[in-house]
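worker-03 picked up job from queue 'complexes'. Input manifest follows; two sequence lines, order preserved.
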Amino acid sequence: MPISFDPNPATLQGRDEMHEIAVQHMRPWSRKYDDHEHEMPWEYVNPMWERATGKSGKGDSGPGDGMVTVCVQTEELCWGDAGLYLRTPSPLLGGSAVAAAGTPAQRERFLTPFREGKPKWGAMAITEPQAGSDAAAIETTAVFDEATNEWVLNGTKIFCTAGEGALEYEGGLVVVWATIDKSAGRAGIKSFVVTAGTPGVSVVGCEKKLGIRASDTATLRLENCRVPADNLLGKAEVKKPGANPSGDKGFKGAMATFDASRPIVAAMAVGVGRAALDFVKEELERQGVPVRYDAPPREQTAIERDVIEMEGELQAARLLTWRAAKMLDRGQRNNLEASMAKAKAGLAVTKITQKAVELLGPLGYSKKLLVEKWMRDAKINDIYEGTQQINQLIIARRILDYSSSVLR
Amino acid sequence: MIDFEPTEEQQLIVDTVQQFARSEIRPVARESEEASKLPEKVLSAAHELGLVANSLPESAGGSGERSAITGALIAEELAWGDLAIALAILSPGLSALPVAEWGTDAQKESLARFVGPDFVPGALAIVEPRFDSDPFRPATLARRDGDGFVLDGAKCLVPWLDGADSVLVVANEGGSSQLFLVPRDAGGLKVEPERYMGIQALPTAELTLSGVALPASARIGGDAGVDMRRLIAQGRVALAAMAVGLARAAFETARDYAKERQVFGVPVATKQAIAFKLADMALEIDGARLLAWEAAWKLDRGEDATREALLARRQANRVALEVADGAVQVLGGHGYIRDYLPELHLRNARGFTSFEALALV
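worker-03 finished. Artifact:
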């Protein structure tokens, strides 16, 4: 295929469907669930669940553009509301982990409930109070009890997106990262599926946040939480450095989840940024202030220059995102490009939304409108799923051909 | 379908031009700059690659199909070698491409001389020597006089290579920005050689037009004229791609230096302050390239690409300057020394905001 910026018809259809959802089921509730931080937004959840479990709107994204379509749709929903998007009843990151590392039987067992019954959520629990981007420092333990053929989990997890929904509603699941051999470092880290209702796991509370307040960011406690042996994703053996006889991708395999999730987070960022930029341009138009793309620099107002800069930054972020997604669709390794997209999008929309508040003056700062909310929502994109700096580190290692022990 | 991979044919062209830039252009970039002189042999050799001919129809002695995306790919690789030499290599296109696209049948008859073995360089006079130069509304005026036109005004940054016989001048004719073919020996045309902070190997001229009388046939495209918005977008895409090529060259120089240079017993590239700077350079370059490609893609579809070309231009110009400046910084004291390329990249990069249509795709 030649270089082309023409989305598949199916991608466009998917985008339009999501846009309608954004307009009908997200924007009307944006302010409400920003103000009512820990309430379940049923006005959004119910129609989304009906859509996910019903027959309608499950169009194929077209040949070879699956991930691109996911990014286009994600942008649309986060244009609607990034916080509500994270409350979408679906397996989310937990599902990605099960799909990536689970056996066919595990996928069947854990993911089938997401196609029927009442709304359900999935989540991924990695971060701990002392282990953020440095996932290898995880202290949550998993000990195998041969007598019962169970894994026994102990520890505390924080910043677990959708963790409350996943554990408080029947059929949900959380994929918990824990070490089975602390002395083995990263090689000892495994992921375990903990389903809602399992004794020993509890939601301690939800964080009060700067933005994306509709999203439940949970703290989880695991106290002698027992899960069946078969809830381990991947193999139990701890790989010795340099050896990989089992073919188990282990920690690196777990990290590869980010190659798929980072373009999606980048698309989320682009959606929030576009919400702010669209609003600025509409407001300028309402006030009779057009943006002229063919005026010489001396004639352009400061506002026009700002808007053009914002548009360029947003589009660069969007295209880097699509590129990373397209590489996944092609089956190419994309971890450099995924981090580029994430780093660019996270920072670009942080700046774009902050500028939008500035350009609109008191309108931008006011809670009567949503611009101030988008600025608060946008910032998380430069933090979660790998901070700006972690992504810079990944990019730097790749372009310099340095290992993590050389460029630390 | 959204895709970011060149066709096999395009990739072949990119590989060829990259090889040429690496083995022919880059080795003479510094001496050409210092001597303010183009390497004639490199220009002839480049001409044999048929880079301009490939964009011209067969009727004009060309051999290919014009594609803005292919043009952007070529421009990036050439500029990676050296910006001034890249502009010189593509200069025949400045005269040939607008005539091929919009010229009358009679005007098109002259196209072959831009691609034959004794090819003549081209020239487009668009920038004006003033802070508020505006390609859409040039201060240079063309007024009708009988059957012909009379031009008055001033231009600068006009490529002025040996062997050229004419220049296409952008002038305001009745509120419309149009192109006029002006012979080098036209009465009332004064030519002053120029010197700039960068691209010193490329000879350029400041033109003063005082009552330059031209026949009616001088107006490119006859009564229909040219689509100046499209022409400017073509120029902006070419220059954005070149800014990306320059930035890539500066980035690679900085990256390679940082891996070699030892500080406190380790390569300086192992320091996050340097490594993160290089990471930012790499992703910004890729972002700017994709914007240039998107604008090129719109041009190839025959759509108005004014907005996309402007976004690409702004982004690429900023990235080129920041990356070149960053490269000078990474090299530290050596970055300031003319033995290394980053100081040249910085001087060249600063020019892009002043450039307009110094090359076309």
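worker-03 released lock.
The beta strands of chain A are 122-125, 141-145, 150-161, 173-179, 189-195, 201-206, 217-228, 232-233.
Chain A has a mean pLDDT of 92.
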